[in-house]
Every structure is written in C-alpha cells, then in structure tokens.
Amino acid sequence: MKNFIFENPTRIIFGKDTENQVGEEVSKYGKKILLHYGGGSIKKSGLYDKVIKSLKEHNIDFVELSGVVPNPRLSLVKEGIKICKEKKIDFILAVGGGSVIDSAKAIGIGAVYDKDVWDFYSGVARVEKTIPVGVVLTIPAAGSESSSSSVITNEDGWYKRSALAIIMRPKFAILNPELTYTLPFYQTACGIADMFSHVMERYFTNEQHVDFTDELCEATFRTIIKHGRKLVENPNDYNSRAEIMLASTIAHNGLLGVGRVEDWASHGIEHELSAIYDIAHGAGLAIVFPAWMKYVYKHDIDRFAKFSKNVFGVKGYDKEEIALKGIDALKEFYNYLGLKTSLKEVNITDEHFDEMAKKATINRKLGNFVPLDTSDVYNIYVLSK
Asked: For 88-237, where are the alpha helices, taking DSSP H only?
C-alpha cells in the first residue's frame, strides 16, 4: 500500500427536501453569487423556484448563467469568468449534474487567474486558488460534487481535458435523491456507467496489499449493480435512488483510491470520443471500458478473475475463462440498463480512430495499470467496434 493523504472537506447534505437549505449554506461563503445551471429542466421540475426562494430568504444577490451542455464547453466557461470579474462574484452555485459542476469549477479557477483558464487544462499552469463553489446535485454520475477535478471541452480542436486540485472540491453538496426522479432513464443509466467506471479506474491497480480498499470497491460495484437493476423495474424507488446517489459520490471522492496507483486510461480514451462525437460520457465509457479490459486482462488475470468472482459471482476453475466471463457480465449489465457496448451500435465508424489515438497520447502514455501508447489506444478503439 502506498503512502497517502486523504482530504475531502466537502460538506455533504443528504436527503429529502435538503435543497431548501441552499440559501443558508451559500450565506456562509458569499453574498453575491453566480447561479450556474444547464437548460430548462430545473425550471420544469420546480427546483429552480425552490433555489431562488431560498437565496432570496437569505438576502443573497445572484447573477444567472445557464446553457451548460453535456461535455461542457470552454466558451461558456469564459463567459462565466467574465461575469465573475465584472460583477465581483464571491461564490458560484452549480445546480445540475457533473457538467454544470465541472463548468462552475472551471469558472472559479479562471476568475482569479489573469491568463487563459485553458492553461490549467493543458498543463501549462497549476491551480492555486479559486472562487468557492457549492452544489445542488440533480444527476448522480460524475461524482464532481465532492471531487477535486473538472473536465472541459475546448471547441478549438475539440480537446477534452481535466484540471485537478484539492482546492477545487466544492464547499458543500446538497444531495436529494428525489431530485433525480424526473431524469430520463437513459441519463440515469449513463450515470451508473460513469460511477462504475470511476471505481474500476481505482480497482485495476498494480499496487499490492490493498485488501481494505479492494473490499470497498467491490461493495460499491455490487451496490450499483443491485440498485441499478432495481431502478430499471421502478425508476421512482427512493431507496435505490439514494443508494445510487451515495455510491456515485463515494466512487469519486478519493476514498476508494487511497494507497493505490489509479489507472484512468479508459477515461482518456473516452474523452476523445465524446469530444468529437459529443456522446454522453457514461455511454462512451460503457463502450470503451470493456474493450480496454479485453486488451489488458492478461497483464493480471488474477485481479480480473477476482473482479469477476466477487462482483458478478462468476464461478469456475480456469482463471482466464472466469476473467472473460466477468467482462461479458459487465456488458450484459450495461445492456440491461439500455446502454450500448459497441461503437457500431451508436453509429460511430473508424473514421477518426487514428486522430483520437494520437490526441489521447500527445506527450504521454495513458494509464498506469498498463501504460498505453498511440498504437495501443488505436487497437482499443478497434476492439470497441
């Protein structure tokens, strides 16, 4: 087990009606805020009115910036930065899912930086300060509500990259599972694939003697599978919504990765897909991750067999057969949720395979479990067909 420091200061406020506490929480950090959200869904659901009411009750002045889309765009981030600087914003409230939260984080670090915010995403600069961010979560998926990362798409070249810093963790996150009832099930399914992938990026490690976090990861996998299946049958099951929402947060708050060397190759591979084709991130991961698994499983058949046995209950004696059956079981789970597991099924051809592979590996190899070069990434795209 590696040495580690685990620090997560995000205050989690979980349960029914907790969105009504947003004004009280915001008032601890600022009085002039940027209210950041996506389209009209929070207005249709009534959440917008609840948030506005709570902010007004606590005499909080706010400026609105809507328009966040899946795979959030750098252009809107820059618009938010301009607003924050001109209006002297002292807090950013993100109401939405991971895309809204990632956009809010980008605005926060860019608003206190004199140069181009993309510097943080291209590796030119390191994040050292930010306008604080708070969250009302509507989509359990990305785990951005208590993570230290943000992923943004730059329309100039369609690069999708991440920035990372402890200071980017939100000050608070309000999680009411009832707010997810109005989601189209496809979004719920994509979220489940996303959170499952966050655990897999940590689970597939070369680090030895990580029994405790192995067990935590496996329990998180099983919980997601159990309650993901239940939500197919009853999308309004509060208890399953609550389990999935909490699992999503734990999957990406850093706890499951302590003492481990994490991988993150599959995310890098998928980012190129969603940057060019604008496919939902979770939908892309449901395609890419099984292909990555088939490409690398022989590197550590024991770990893949353990995953298959402890997560999906695969039985047998031949480790390779068990490992492969576990990968098939994962694909079957995604299919049960209504997700596709090949590029052909989402009408993506091999037209950009070479371009995406080169972009994914500019000045780097991807991943730590098995470091991947450009040809490896290309081959994984081929396996994804």
From this structure: 98-110, 118-122, 185-203, 211-233
- Can you tell me the distance from the alpha carbon of 213 to that of 140, in angstroms, rounded to the nearest whole number? 22
Domain annotation covers residue 2? no
The answer to whether position 79 is within a domain reads: yes
What letter would DSSP give residue 372?
B
Which tens digits make up the pLDDT trace of 244-283? 999 999 999 999 999 999 999 999 999 999 999 999 999 9
Number of domains in the chain: 2
Mean pLDDT of 144-156: 97
First to last CA, the chain: 37
Residue 171 belongs to some domain of the structure: yes
Give φ, ψ of 133 to 5 degrees.
-125, 145
> How confident is the model over 207-252, as pLDDT tens digits?
999 999 999 999 999 999 999 999 999 999 999 999 999 999 999 9
**Quick one: which of 143, 157, 237 has its CA closest to 193?**
143
281-293 pLDDT, tens digit each: 999 999 999 999 9
Q: What is the CB neighbour count within 10 angstroms for residue 133?
A: 30
**How many whole angstroms separate alpha carbon 94 and alpha carbon 334?**
29
What pLDDT, on a 0 to 100 scale, did the predictor assign at position 40?
A: 87
Encoded tokens for 100: 């809204």
- Give CB contacts under 8 A, 24+ apart, made by 46-52: 47/19, 47/95, 47/136, 47/138, 47/179, 48/95, 50/19, 50/20, 50/22, 51/19, 51/22, 51/93, 51/95, 51/136
Domain of residue 60: give its range: 11-179
Residue 31 Cα distances to 24, 59, 246, angstroms: 11, 7, 30
Q: Name beta bridge partners: 149.
A: 164
Q: Give the whole-angstrom CA distance, residue 269 versus residue 351.
A: 15
| Contact partners, residue 49, CB within 8 Å, separation at least 6 | 43
Whether this model's pTM surpasses 0.85: yes
The CATH number covering residue 225 comes to 1.20.1090.10
Domain boundary among 164, 179, 194: 179
Beta-carbon count within 10 A of 45 CB? 16
**Tokens 């980012």 label which residue?**
271
Q: How far is CA 115 from the centre of its chain?
A: 27
Q: Does 29 reside within a domain?
A: yes
